[in-house]
Write a structure and sequence with these properties.
With 111 residues, the protein is of the alpha/beta class. It has a single domain, classed as Glutaredoxin (3-Layer(aba) Sandwich). It contains 4 helices and 5 strands; from the N terminus they run E-H-E-H-E-H-E-E-H. It has a 5-stranded mixed β-sheet, with helices on both faces.
């Protein structure tokens, strides 16, 4: 399932959801070719994962709030796996792969 985040309240809802099961926060640019490639990978994964996404051009304040709350340096595109309100791992550019995200979430779920 893919959820669009636009506000701090949306981010808090995502972090709340991560208390019960792992989620992925996906940050990307509407104009970057690296983001386009990463978006394809995430689009394939969204059927099996809960993905909370933002488009950086439309939510400039939210990208920094995510970085601060999760203590993860902002990058773009970026996928952050979150469980129990904490960043578990993060991926950037070509490291954002459907299989990697699915495997990590599966491992967290089974732990």
């Amino acid at each position: 399932m893919f959820h669009i985040m636009k506000t701090s309240e949306d981010l808090q809802a995502a972090l709340d959801a991560s208390q019960e099961k792992p989620i992925v926060i996906f940050k990307h640019s509407a104009t970057c070719p690296f983001s386009a490639a990463a978006q394809i990978e995430v689009a394939h994964a969204k059927h099996d994962l809960d993905v909370y996404g933002i488009v950086l051009q439309y939510t400039p304040d939210l990208k920094m709030e995510i970085a601060e709350k999760l203590d993860v340096e902002h990058q773009s595109p970026q996928a952050i796996t979150v469980y129990k309100g904490k960043a578990v791992n993060h991926y950037w550019r070509g490291d954002i792969q459907e299989r990697t995200l699915k495997n990590e979430v599966k491992e967290l779920t089974e732990a």
